[in-house]
Amino acid sequence: MMVSKMARLACACAVLTIGGGVLAQQTVPDASVPGSAGLDLPANLQIFGKADPNVRKPTAIVNDSVITGTDVDQRMSMTLALNNMPGIPDDQRDEVRLQVLRQLIDETLQIQEAKANEIAVTQGEVDQSFDRVSRNFKRTPEQMREYLRSVGSSDRSLKRQIEGELAWNRLLRRKVTPFVNVSDEEVKSIIDRLKASQGAEEYHLREIYLSAPEERQAEVIENARKMIEQMRGGAPFEYFARNFSEASTKAVGGDLDWVRLGVLPPELQQAAQQMQVGQIAGPIPIPGGFSILYLADKRQVLTADPRDARLSLRQLTLKFPGGTTQNQASARAADFAKATQRINGCGGVAAIAQEIGAEVVDNDAVPVRQLPPALQEIVLKMQVGQSTPPFGSPSDGVRALVLCGRDDPKTAGLPSSEAIQSKLEDERVNLRAQRMLRDLRRDAVVEYR
Fold first, then answer.
1. What count of other Cβ atoms lies within 10 Å of the Cβ of residue 238?
2. Which residue has the higher pLDDT, 198 or 271?
3. Contact present, 340 and 400 (Cβ < 8 Å)
4. Cα separations (Å) of 181 from 19, 90, 172, 173, 424?
5. Which domains does the chain have, with CATH numbers?
6. C-alpha–C-alpha distance, residues 284 and 27, integer Å
7. In Å, what is the CA distance from 408 to each residue of 303, 367, 368?
8. DSSP secondary structure string, 317-378?
9. pTM of structure
10. Considering only CA atoms, which of 441, 277, 245 is closest in space to residue 371?
């Protein structure tokens, strides 16, 4: 029911918006709550004593459980490696380290609360989940252990994260899920809103919000441009959102889910209208700071969309030997491209593959939306029997997809009542889980070292 941490790692680490509704504060930083969040603060306050925001506490004791510097270092190395972020600028490293420490503190509180409720996670269950995560990263468990050690982490760090997730989810299933109810009237109301908004355009957006006082605008713009440059180089958007965004959506990787432009500030409306799926835009000036937007998808409510088509694909893969240089890879890719251009229908794939020493794998009923944005645009314009241009890298080899069939969507039907109910229940479980974790933080004794 909870947003899976393992799923976030696998894709790079929920706000319900059926029918286009979103939280109004998507571009409001957490600290910018009107009325000082109800606190009785003087208008012209004076700080007594010296506060140095650059001081970072590297370790912590959480209710007598010690989080060591090694724990933080290994988790940080693991997170960066699994998110394909082998190196980050020095000016971001301290911020990431502090974020990792906060995550470890939350994880410790979750495990402690589960144990207090006599919820146990066995070592066998942790090992089984570790094996499954390893397979998700196309490695055997032993290969995964070696990989984690090679990047400065360990299997202990990943298993600790797995234990925290299993323990917390079981605690929620016991103390939260049974008490979450969704009425038939609520489901019917959502269905009615969907019907009324049929044909309206929606955008699936992710956002990073950076506050910028006038004296720091140039610095914030420069930092935003560095982030965008790294994202265009392959770094995951969610990584920067979770670690640097000041919006309330940072906990879900900046995900605004499906929204209609009318709920966004005018500056973001204009930017989103000009974006293509998979594109990043920014830094976009908005009141109080700047935003970076990523357009994950777009659609029309209850309207058939070409991206809902399901494809029958035949994939050719030509792997490169170890130590292949960029020039060697380019030459082999050029030969591969010439060969794939000679493909005339899926029946001829096997002969071409044998000729060039490529592997062939069939994939049926692949939704267009599951492909990377760049490939989506290509396959939507292809005829059956045609091949995509080669794509890949020197380390992974080169690939091409041959379109063998396409089932286009006829209509876009309403989601089932069960699906709507399930999503509402998931959202409410997540909200209550956030409140529970907030209370655990408030009651905890945390000593920073």
1. 22
2. 271
3. yes
4. 20, 47, 14, 13, 9
5. 57-182+431-448 (1.10.4030.10), 201-300 (3.10.50.40), 306-407 (3.10.50.40)
6. 12
7. 13, 10, 10
8. EEPPPTT--HHHHHHHHHHHHHHHHT--SGGGHHHHHHHHT-EEEEEEEEEGGGS-HHHHHH
9. 0.62
10. 277
Residue 403 tokens read as 């379109």
DSSP 149-207: HHTT--HHHHHHHHHHHHHHHHHHHHHTGGG----HHHHHHHHHHHHHTTT-EEEEEEE
CA separation, residue 317 to residues 19, 334, 359 (Å): 41, 14, 5
Interval 47-74: pLDDT, tens = 554 444 444 445 788 888 888 888 999 9
Q: Which residues, other chains included, contact 23 with Cβ-Cβ below 8 Å and sequence gap of 6+?
A: 15, 248, 249
3-state secondary structure of 280: strand
Under 8 Å between Cβ of 207 and 245: yes
Residue with tokens 């038939």, as numbered in its chain: 184
How many residues can be counted in the chain?
A: 449
Residue at 353: amino acid letter: A
More reliable by pLDDT, 249 or 39:
249
- Give the Cα separation of 369 and 388 in Å (integer): 16
- Tokens (6 digits) for 239: 């990584």
Question: DSSP states of 185-197 as a string?
Answer: HHHHHHHHHHHHT
